[in-house]
Amino acid sequence: MRHALLAIMVAGLAALAAGVVTNDFYLRILFNIGIYFLCASGMNVLLGYAGQKSLGQAGLFAAGAYGAALLTTSAWDLGPWTALVLSTAIAALCGVLIAAPSLRVRGPSLAMVTLAFGIVVEKVVTEAEVFGGAMGIYAIKPLTLGGEPLDMRQWVWLVIALGLGLHLLLRNLLTGRYGRAFLSLQADEIAAGAVGVPVHRTKVLAFVIAAATCGLAGALVAQQNQYINSDFINFNLSIFILLLVLFGGAGSLAGPVLGAVTLTVVSALVARWAWIEHFVQGALLLFALYVMPKGLAGVLDGLFRARRGEAPRRAEAPSADARLPVRAGAARDTPLLQAEALNKAYGGVRPARDVSARLTLGHIHALIGPNGAGKSTLINMLSGVVRPDSGRILFQGQPLGRAAPHAICDRGIARTFQNLRLFRDLSVRDNVLLGQHARMRNGFLSSLLGLPRAWREERAAEARVSEILRFLGLSALADQPAGALPYGLQRRVELARALATEPYLLLLDEPAAGLNPQETAELGKLLLRIRDQGITILLVEHHMDLVMAISDHVIVLDYGATIAEGAPAAVQADPRVMAAYLGTDDAAAEEASAEPELAVRA
Amino acid sequence: MLATTLQALVSGLAIGGVYALIALSFSITFTTTRTLNFAQGEFIGVGAFLGVTVLYALSSGGEGGSFAALAPAASEGFRYPAAALAVGAALGTLGLLLFLAAIRPFAGKPGMSWVMSTIGFGIILQSLGLAVWGPAPVNMPSPFGDDVLRLGGAGVRPQEVAVLVVAVLLMAGLDFVMRRTRLGKAMRAVAYDPNVAALMGINVTAIMLGAFALSSALAGVGGVLVAPIASASLFMGMGIALKAFSGAILGGLDNPRGCIFGGFALGLLESGVALWQAQWREIAVFLLIILVLAIRPNGLFGRRALDKV
Q: What kind of membrane protein is this, topologically (chain A) (predicted)?
């Protein structure tokens, strides 16, 4: 609430300033600040939250600007307000277009593709006749109020109102379920998918938000000038939009406004000399990267925040009365999960050869085997991170088919990772809340508008998360960044995050790796308590005493094939298992003749 | 018809040679540092202008003409190769600066800040270039004159042949160094794993510095090569660098020979499309790249990166 009041006050002051100022030059600066704020707000969602670098925002600005131009001047001859809305929608559609390659490529290639997109749009509006090239399009209808075109002051008021509205909407969105999902993409896409965030859809959404706000800004500029030509659209605009976010503070709600105000004023001061303007932009970009990686917002935050006391570094004892949220209605008549004849090969290495497994509801299953036996590959196949080459997986009697990791998570399979994949910069609470992502039912619109439904879902998720944290004894650490915790506690946070997806089946990939004996014993007790809450566990582990103490059923893999399974004691006595672990005379001979590449760790 | 096709083939190979050279320059830094210079376009433009400046300085005896309109005599004899060498050296030094200022602080850290820092470096470089040379394009005379050679009915400019020959020689030399020398082996070791390379006694920083110096020098020489065909402009580099990068993506960024192939393929494609519709050539090229990325994200000859979970 305080944030909203502050935003309204800032907007009110700006509107007041516009009312007092009579000089057209200053009004234009205020207008530009508003325009750049719109661009930066959307870009902040894409760059600061979702972590996607787009170097082609000028192309989306163009989509909005030329959309408004053509819709009001050509045969369509639409009204200016309709054209404004439609051209924003057109830009949003173009956002889907620019998002498409991001689903396949990442890193520098993605940055280059977005850059190419901006350049192509620049070429198209310069070359194609319908856009008027350098001549441009004249007589674009300006927005009107009661039949009269807006005057400069009204334009400023309009962009302030739009900016305030956009800021409040994005704040609703970013402080809840969707904001966390965007941040999870930035941190680790594989982990995001595994905790139930639909990676592709969320990424496209971020691109579309950035596209729509840039398009809106472009349309406003075209309508205010009543003229647009290809000189407006260039690479420098794309960079400037990025700079607004980086300089203001990427991933901060205050960043866009700080960036827009500072940079617009600086640009206006040096605009008389074209090369100095560029020089200053380049210098500010480097300055922001070197000196204030969190932008102006980060600097201000550091100034005003009181120094915190020493943060707790230890977990408290798990609360015995805490209960995990669980889903009702697991079918008891079929096996929980049935894997049939799974195969997977990476070149000559075959970490899965006709592997079959059957998991029973309410049991702790252990998956053991020497290094390179294919244990992690099996976990990866069950959780959808890796697709089997052949074979099928039935979960509660239904085939998983080619479902994506987030869909599998939604069906009730959760996992942890052998090499921790926490969202390190997010707090423990946010990490675990991300596990609740797929369990929350508030959609995009209710989150954006801040409807009561979104608010209720957020509260309910928070309540469930604090219960999970209590269950694991992590409550005191809830507000610390997950990456700052000691290793053993990070493992436990990952477990909490997986439990927050309310799974039927929990896949744990070496949960005791790196834990000391005492921590390992505590983990064993925890896993038994989790099972007692009705959650089935499949555990990959090398600590044999842990495995033998808690498992109901053990599966042994070697060279990608199941060599034994059954009750712990029976498996322990199995000669093939002993051979696989310790080697016998026969096995040693066999191993010597086997292809050496099979020894590569999978 | 045959003549125009032949002509398109030769000019496609010539511009493709430049793309291949720049694509290789991307590959050199990407394989050794996992980063690349997003300001390579500005380096090309500055290289071209530096070339013009050197030619002007060398020929200021009188017959050279003014800076904005150098006479053909200005690039005769030793002057053009001298200019190319000087530009290569100057840009190579700039590449060292780029690595120290914009790459090293950010390489290997999450967030890919080096994309932004190299862009910032390029913007500064370009604005300084604008301050010194102004925005107007300048002609650079070809050392071989502008008389059109007749080749089976097709008119070919001698500079196009020269570009092709020089580019191929340079790339063959680099390929030899990469595959047959100790230095090349060290570079490939750093590319594979810098930490292990350091443990084996390879000076990783020196290799990375060398990679950036070499890559930037190639950009400068590319600018000097291409300037007589088009004309020197501070804005000419962006398009070339983008297409060269597209060529590198096509062939696989981590495969130098693939990059060379991709560069040539792109040059040929571009001049082929230009035969049909000149103004759509950029758009056709970039659409092709997006298509290739959609089907094979690591290029035609790139290794598949396995994300180990």
A: Multi-pass membrane protein
Q: What is the mean pLDDT of residues B114-139?
A: 93
Shared domain check, A602 and A523? yes
Confidence of residue A301 (pLDDT cuts 50, 70, 90): confident
Q: Are residues A442 and A536 in the same domain?
A: no
Distance CA A460, CA A443 (A): 15
Contact (Cβ atoms closer than 8 angstroms) between residue A505 and residue A337: yes
3-state secondary structure string across A369-387: CCCCCCHHHHHHHHCCCCC
pLDDT digits (tens, 9 = 90+) for B146-179: 788 887 777 888 898 999 999 999 999 999 998 8
Residue B146, chain A, CB below 8 Å: the answer is no
A467/A539 same-domain check: no
Kindly write down the DSSP assignment for every residue of A432-460, as one continuous string: HHHHTGGG----HHHHHHT-HHHHHHHHH
Residues A494 and A549 in one domain: no
B35 interfacial to chain A (CB closer than 8 Å): yes
A99-152 residue pLDDT tens: 887 887 777 888 888 888 898 898 888 888 888 878 889 889 999 998 899 999
Of residues B116, B143, B70, the one with CA closest to residue A287: B116
- The CATH number given to whatever domain includes residue A372 is 3.40.50.300
Contact A378, A340 (CB under 8 A): no
Which residue on chain A is closest to B282 by alpha carbon?
Answer: A120
Q: Is the pLDDT assigned to residue A43 strictly greater than 70?
A: yes
Q: Is the minimum CB–CB distance between A96 and chain B shorter than 8 Å?
A: no
At A518-560, the pLDDT tens digits run: 889 999 999 999 999 999 999 999 898 999 999 999 999 998 8
Q: Quick one: closest CA in B to A113, which residue?
A: B290
Is B38 within 8 Å of A111 when comparing Cβ atoms?
yes
B120 touches chain A (CB under 8 A): yes
Q: Which domain holds residue A140?
A: 2-235
A493 in the same domain as A507: no
What was the ipTM of the complex prediction?
A: 0.89
Residue B44: pLDDT above 80? Answer: yes
Cβ under 8 Å to B: A residues 323-362: 346
Where along chain B do its domains lie? 2-236
Establish if B286 touches chain A: CB-CB under 8 angstroms. Answer: yes
User: How many other CB atoms sit within 10 Å of the CB of residue B274?
Assistant: 17
Mean pLDDT of A233-258: 94
End of a domain among A235, A258, A288? A235
> Is the same domain home to A430 and A387?
no
Helix axes B113-133, B40-58, angle to 10 degrees: 30
Task: List the strands of the sheet with A536-540, edge to edge.
Answer: A413-415, A505-509, A536-540, A364-368, A553-558, A561-566
Give the phi and the psi of residue A258 in degrees, each rounded to 5: -60, -45
Model confidence pLDDT, tens digit, residues B259-270: 999 999 999 999
- Counting the structural domains of chain A, the total is 3
Choose, out of A106, A109, A234, A291, the residue to mutate when testing the contact with B (most B CBs < 10 Å).
A109
Of the candidates A108, A120, A421, which has its C-beta nearest B115's C-beta? A108
A191-211 per-position pLDDT tens digit: 999 999 999 999 999 999 999
Residue A98: inside a domain: yes
Same domain, A363 and A471: no
Indicate whether B307 pLDDT > 60. Answer: no
Selecting from B289, B297, B309 the residue whose C-beta is nearest the C-beta of A380 gives B309
Interface of A with B in 164-193 (CB under 8 A): 190
Chain B touched by A101 (CB under 8 Å): yes
Task: Decide if pLDDT at A600 tops 60.
Answer: no
Q: Which of A501, A517, A550 is the last residue of a domain?
A: A501
Domain contains A105: yes
Identity of the residue in A113, A124, A346 whose CB atom sits nearest the CB atom of B293: A113
d(Cα A188, Cα A370) in Å, to the nearest integer?
29
Percentages (nearest 5) of helix, strand, coil residues in chain B: 70, 5, 25
